[in-house]
Structure formats: C-alpha cells, structure tokens
C-alpha cells in the first residue's frame, strides 16, 4: 500500500505537538475485545475536551454516532465486526479508539478547547468497511471492479463550525482511492494516518461527512464507518480568560435544567447544537436560573456562559 503520511511527518507531528493535549480514550474501562455503544443511554462519550455524541435505539439494539472500542478483529468480514479498526489496535498499539457510524457525524470540542484551533488526529478504516471495499460483499462492490480499473473512492470530508458558522474550507481525506490511471497507486488505508486540521482555524465542533463512488438506489453502499484516535487539541493556546465552573442539573435532562454559577454579574447563556448552530440565547440575571429545554430535539448540545471577555462551556444531553 502507498504510504500517505511518512514516518518523518509523524516525527514532526510529535515534535511540534508535544505540548498539546492528546485525547486518546484510554480512560474508558472496557473489557478486552469489547466496546461501548451507548446502550447505557448516556447519549455520548466525553474524553478530555472532546465530546462524541451517540444515539442508541434500544428497540433494535442499534446505534449511530460514536462508539468506544478495543476490538482487534482484522479478518472477519461483515456487519458483526463493525467495532474493529483494520489496524487491530489503537494508534501506536494503544488499546481504546473511537469508531463512528453514519454518513454525517460530529465531534464537539468542550471546556478550554472550545473555540480554539485543533491540530489534527489519527484516522484509519474500520475492518467492516475495509474488507467490504477489498473483496466486495452482498451490498457493496469490490473497489476497482473485476479489472481493477474502476475509479472508486471512499472520501471523508471534515469541516469546522465556530460560533454557529461553518467553515468555507474543508479537509479531504481519502480512506480509499482507486482513481489513478496507474493501478499500482490504488490504495485502501490500513494504518493510522495523520490528518492535519490546522487549516480549519478556530473550532467549536467538527463535521465528518462520508461519500463513495459506490452508490445505489438507497444511497452509499460502502459501509459508513471509520476510526479515530489521538486527537491533538491545545487549550493552553487560548488567551481568552475562563469563567469559574458552573453547575447544570439535571444532565441528561428531558425538560428543564437549572444553571448555578458564582458570578455577581449578568451572564449571557448560549446553547449550540452538535453542528455549532445557535439554538438558544438568553441573559441570566441571577446566579441560579431554570431554563426550559422542551423545545429542543433529543441530542447533545454545548451550553456556554459568557461575559464581556470570559466564557465557560459544558455539554448537556437532551433526552
């Protein structure tokens, strides 16, 4: 397979990113060869200053969004192996990593990292998707076709939301690319590859969109999975002062939340959805106030308190 990101590049990444905060999901206590898929109803996973949303359907025992996994099966094809990375482990041989399933998912930056640049992350193929592209299956074609000449691709497009606005720029990363006239250049990613996101600027959340050349009557045939590990964020770069911690209760919530803080002045309260769009804004006049959230659909949201030059944020889950 052609190498896209050389060892030299990896060396420079670690040299210049060494002072940054690395989100590696290792704090999740998962049994060996197992996963967390949101069946506990938590609505997502927080790791460092990153929140990954999860939507679990208890009736069908299915999920979309993100899962946390350490499964290492790189040989079993099909849907039953949807939680494994084709590398067989996390980045650098680590245990845990994140798996995402859907055509369009999001990653939310929280705490001091919210609204700051993100340097990048390591990304690889999910085993189910990789083997489907390599050999084909009942639903998806073998990439390249019978002759190997079909110009197939599996593309990940990453955009940033900041302050409710989506970035004009995007970062494209090909999880598989058979478009070159020289078939020796065809590849399906089978290693952890560094994806540089510094060009996206300041980030509240990231949007991940998958597209494929293999499209049928009902949309994309290629399994809509990939894996992420070692996200590099740098909250220490911020020059924005932060507010003291504030409390939210209950969280998750079905209807109302109570916000309590220790500031003696009025604060602006803003709620953004997982795409970074503003869905609520109000001035808080007291140190403890109740906000009605019944109007919001179920999902994950970022709630921020701000004064003239300080802010603090948390993730809330609406059931």
Highlighted features:
319 residues, mainly beta, Jelly Rolls, Immunoglobulin-like, 2 domains, 16-stranded antiparallel β-sheet, four-stranded antiparallel β-sheet, elongated
Notes on the protein architecture:
The chain is mainly β and 319 residues long. The chain folds into 2 domains: 7-237, Jelly Rolls (Sandwich); 247-318, Immunoglobulin-like, CATH 2.60.40.3080. The chain has 2 helices and 25 strands. The strands form 4 sheets. The protein has a 16-stranded antiparallel β-sheet that branches. A hairpin with a 2-residue loop joins strand 16 and strand 17. The protein is elongated, with a radius of gyration of 21 Å. Mean pLDDT is 87; it is low at 1-19.
CATH homologous superfamily assignment of the largest domain: Protein of unknown function DUF4465
Count of alpha and pi helical runs: 2
List segments where confidence is low: pLDDT < 50 over at least 5 consecutive residues.
Answer: 1-19
- Structural class per helix/strand content? mainly beta
How many distinct beta strands? 25
CATH fold-type name of the largest domain: Jelly Rolls
Radius of gyration from the alpha-carbon trace, in angstroms: 21 Å
Summed over residues and divided by their number, the pLDDT gives a mean of 87
| SSE arrangement, N to C | HEEEEEEEEHEEEEEEEEEEEEEEEEE
User: What is the top-level CATH class of the largest domain?
Assistant: Mainly Beta
Which descriptor suits the 3D outline? Answer: elongated
Which bin fits the share of residues in helices? under 10%
Q: Tell me which CATH architecture of the largest domain applies here.
A: Sandwich
Give the N-terminus to C-terminus distance in angstroms. Answer: 44 Å
Number of structural units classed as domains:
2
- Give a short account of the largest sheet: 16 strands, antiparallel
Proportion of strand residues: 35-45%
């Amino acid at each position: 397979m052609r190498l896209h990101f050389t060892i030299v590049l990896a060396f420079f990444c670690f040299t210049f990113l060494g002072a940054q905060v690395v989100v590696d999901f290792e704090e999740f206590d998962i049994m060996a060869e197992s996963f967390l898929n949101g069946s506990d109803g938590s609505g997502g996973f927080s790791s460092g200053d990153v929140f990954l949303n999860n939507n679990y359907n208890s009736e069908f025992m299915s999920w979309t969004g993100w899962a946390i996994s350490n499964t290492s099966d790189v040989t079993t094809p099909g849907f039953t192996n949807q939680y494994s990375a084709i590398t067989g482990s996390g980045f650098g041989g680590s245990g845990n990593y994140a798996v995402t399933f859907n055509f369009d998912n999001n990653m939310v930056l929280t705490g001091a990292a919210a609204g700051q640049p993100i340097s990048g992350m390591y990304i690889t193929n999910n085993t189910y998707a990789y083997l489907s592209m390599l050999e084909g299956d009942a639903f998806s074609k073998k990439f390249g076709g019978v002759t190997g000449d079909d110009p197939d691709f599996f593309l990940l497009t990453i955009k940033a939301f900041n302050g409710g606005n989506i970035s004009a720029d995007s970062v494209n990363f090909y999880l598989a690319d058979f478009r070159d006239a020289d078939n020796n250049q065809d590849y399906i990613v089978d290693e952890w590859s560094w994806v540089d996101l510094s060009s996206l600027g300041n980030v509240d959340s990231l949007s991940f969109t998958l597209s494929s050349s293999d499209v049928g009557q009902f949309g994309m045939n290629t399994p809509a999975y990939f894996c992420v590990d070692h996200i590099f964020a740098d909250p220490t770069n911020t020059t924005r002062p932060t507010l003291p911690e504030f409390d939210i209760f209950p969280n998750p919530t079905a209807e109302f939340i109570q916000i309590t803080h220790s500031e003696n002045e009025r604060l602006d309260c803003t709620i953004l959805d997982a795409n970074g769009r503003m869905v609520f804004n109000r001035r808080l006049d007291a140190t403890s106030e109740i906000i009605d959230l019944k109007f919001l659909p179920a999902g994950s949201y970022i709630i921020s308190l701000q004064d003239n030059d300080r802010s603090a944020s948390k993730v809330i889950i609406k059931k």
